[in-house]
Amino acid sequence: MKSQSTELHARLIGHTHNATSRKSEQEFWDDLVFSFLRECPESPEAKRIEKLLSLLTSAQHHLDEIHRLLGNAGAEKSVPKFLENHRKLEQAKRAYYGAVRDLDKAFKRYRWRSFITGDLEGIRRKLGYGLQSANPDVVREYATADLLLEKLKEPGAIGRFRNCAECRQWFYAATSHQQFCTDACRRRNTARNPDFREKRRVYMRERYRPLQKELDKSSRASAKETRPNSAKGKGNVHLQTR
Ligand SMILES: [Zn+2]
Known about the structure:
This protein is mainly alpha-helical. The protein contains 7 helices and 4 strands; from the N terminus they run ααααββαββαα. It has 2 domains: 2-180, no CATH class; 193-242.
């Protein structure tokens, strides 16, 4: 157990330094955290990691909202609109500071140990995990908490942790507009979308079926010309559906 935990620890630390060079950011988080949340969703470690992610992303959401409303404040011309903006701003501030307090509580359970390290670039203070447990899931939880705190230093990075719009599982978005964890989820969602189904129905009725009929007719006619006795429908051409 101990060596397994040490190995995981080394792997996670290695990841910390080389996350972007060794793998894409998306794969890195999937490998470290999201695969664990999918496989052991009921473990206390997974539940606490989920809570950290939820609190961080919700705090970030409220903070973005505050900045948006502050931007609006000067532009509102009418008094009622200005007051409405002000009300929303106060609401967003309350939600944001509430989330920050919850985050403080959630992060309090982690113990960090400060130590000094040095190389040719200089002497620095570093933080290590102050944990006794050899349980690899606990090490993973610490590594996630540590990396999430590091992520706070990168502007906009917390907003990239998202729940897939289709399967609701966590993923790290490679681009700012990515809503789905995989292509499979994106396709499933599009296929169920009423807009897409309506477009497909109209396409089938107005374009595909008349064209198919036309092609059937002309292939039957040409079959008659070349082989007057050939079986009906033998030379049919079928369109590829979308
Ligand atoms: Zn998904």
